[in-house]
Amino acid sequence: GAVVSQHPSRVICKSGTSVKIECRSLDFQATTMFWYRQFPKKSLMLMATSNEGSKATYEQGVEKDKFLINHASLTLSTLTVTSAHPEDSSFYICSAKSSREGYEQFFGPGTRLTVL
Amino acid sequence: AQTVTQSQPEMSVQEAETVTLSCTYDTSESDYYLFWYKQPPSRQMILVIRQEAYKQQNATENRFSVNFQKAAKSFSLKISDSQLGDAAMYFCAYTTGTASKLTFGTGTRLQVTL
Question: Which residues of chain A lie closer than 8 angstroms to B106, CB-CB?
Answer without folding.
Answer: 42-43
